[in-house]
Amino acid sequence: MSKLKNKTAFVTGGSRGIGEGIVRQLALEGANVIFTYVSSRQKAEDLVAEIEALGVKSMAIKADAGNPEEISSVIQQASDWGIDILVNNAGLFVTGEIDNKQNDLSALQKQWEVNVHGVVSTVRNVLPLMKNGGRIISIGSTGATRSPYPGIGDYAATKAALAAYTRSWARDLGSRNITVNIIQPGLINTDMNPSDGPFSAQMLQSVALGHYGEPKDIGMAVAFLASDEARYITGTTLNVDGGQTT
């Protein structure tokens, strides 16, 4: 419990699923963790209590990652803590074929606002508070480089945009020794995509290891990239997918 001791992490969308796994693992490594949530208030409060029982500080704040004003307000609330590690995890998954006239265009637009514009806004608001040598880690998707079924074009495009931003921001912030990387999860066992779901057996056919990952697997990858062990890694895309993209 020392890899991230005395560090403070800010995680968007940290109350459930992959975000919860990230928050928990960062705390286990000794970091103080501030995280946002949208609707899972009780889960967020329970997670704060669990983290503080480890002897580190935690705070959960309700905020819509796609709302620049709310994100700016949350980051100001976190300013007294300082931010060493930023994890852009909040995201939406909205599908629809390009020729489907029944698509919910407002939902597709909201997806872009959360998955892309929200991340850009968060990074811009955090950077004035981040000391040199900080870490920025975004959670993307293997869908950024592959389209295994119809209808994921809009979602995949948002995650591909994040990968492009990652490479550019690594150049922008290199002089400050701030590393910027993106993790692309594959099939991870969450309530949104359970390992015993109706299509899980079919989807697993593309996974070399033959099973789903767990939120902890993404959390451990984040903790590594946030640590001094990854100090010379930046602008990199790390697939944590059990060999799905091999």
From TrEMBL:
It comes from the Bacteria. InterPro entries: KR_dom (IPR057326), NAD(P)-bd_dom_sf (IPR036291), SDR_fam (IPR002347). Pfam families: adh_short_C2. GO terms for molecular function: oxidoreductase activity, acting on the CH-OH group of donors, NAD or NADP as acceptor. Residues 7-191 form the Ketoreductase domain. CDD domains: SDR_c (cd05233). Belongs to the short-chain dehydrogenases/reductases (SDR) family. This is 3-oxoacyl-[acyl-carrier protein] reductase. It comes from Chryseobacterium arachidis.
